[in-house]
Amino acid sequence: MNIKDLISVTLILFSVIDIIGNIPIIIDLKKKGYVIEALKASLVSLLIMTAFLYLGEAILGLFGVDVQSFAVAGAIILFLLGLEMVLGVHIFKDSSENKSGTIVPLAFPLIAGAGTMTTIIALKAKYETIDIQFGILINILFVYMVLRSSEWISKKLGETGANVLRKVFGIILLAIAIKLFKENFHLIVANPS
Predict the structure, then answer these.
(1) What is the C-alpha to C-alpha distance for residues 145 and 133, in angstroms, rounded to an integer?
(2) What is the tens place of the pLDDT at every residue in 111-150?
C-alpha cells in the first residue's frame, strides 16, 4: 500500500461522492418523510463500490452496457434529482407505503452512483486495487458520520438555511449531471455499438 496513492484515491473519491454536497438532498428526503438508515446506506454503498471495483466492467458487459452509457444514465437521474431540489417539484414518486430513501436514491445513485463507479474504473488504470479499496472504506466511514449527523446539521442550518443550501446544491447537482453527460455522451455517439 502506497500512502501517497491512498491519499490521492481517497481525495478523488471524496470529491466525486460529495457527501457534504448531498446534505441538502438528505435533508430534503427526510422532509418528504423518507426514512434514512445511516448504517444500511453506508454498508450498501460500500458493497456496491467494492463490487464495482472488482467486477464493474464485467457486470456492465454482462448486460451489454458500456461505462459511458452507464454514466449517461446516471447523469440523467442526477439531473432529475437536481431539478427536484431547485424547482421544488416531485419527479420521483413512491407508490409504496414504505418510504425508505436509504438504498434508492441515497446509496444509489447519490453515494455509489454512475460518477463514483466510472471514477473507480478510471482509478484502476492508475492505482493499486488495495489503495482504491481503502480509499473507498475511508470515504464510507465519512459518509456514515455525515448521515448520522444529518439531523444535527439540519437543526443548525434551520429552515431558511436548508432551503438556500438545497437550491444552491441543486444547481451544483445539475452542473455535475451535465458535466457527466457531456463527458460521456459524445463517446457513445462517436462509437455506437
Answers:
(1) 19
(2) 998 778 888 987 887 889 999 999 999 999 999 999 999 8
- What are the pLDDT digits (tens) for 22-48? 888 888 888 888 889 999 999 999 999
Over residues 84-107, the mean pLDDT reads: 74
As a whole number of angstroms, the distance between CA 137 and CA 50 comes to 9
* Strand, helix or coil for residue 35: strand
Residues 6+ apart with CB under 8 A from 125: none
Percentage of the chain beyond pLDDT 70 is 95
| Coil/strand/helix, residue 100 | strand
Integer Cα distance of 79 and 97 in angstroms: 26
pLDDT at residue 158 in the model:
79
What's the rounded Cα separation, in Å, for the pair 82 and 33?
18
Burial class (CB in 10 A: 0-12, 13-18, 19+), 37: middle
Distance (Å, rounded) from C-alpha 129 to C-alpha 49?
12
Residues sharing a CB contact under 8 Å with residue 144, sequence separation 6 or more, in sequence order? 38, 39, 42
State the cell numbers at 48: 456496491
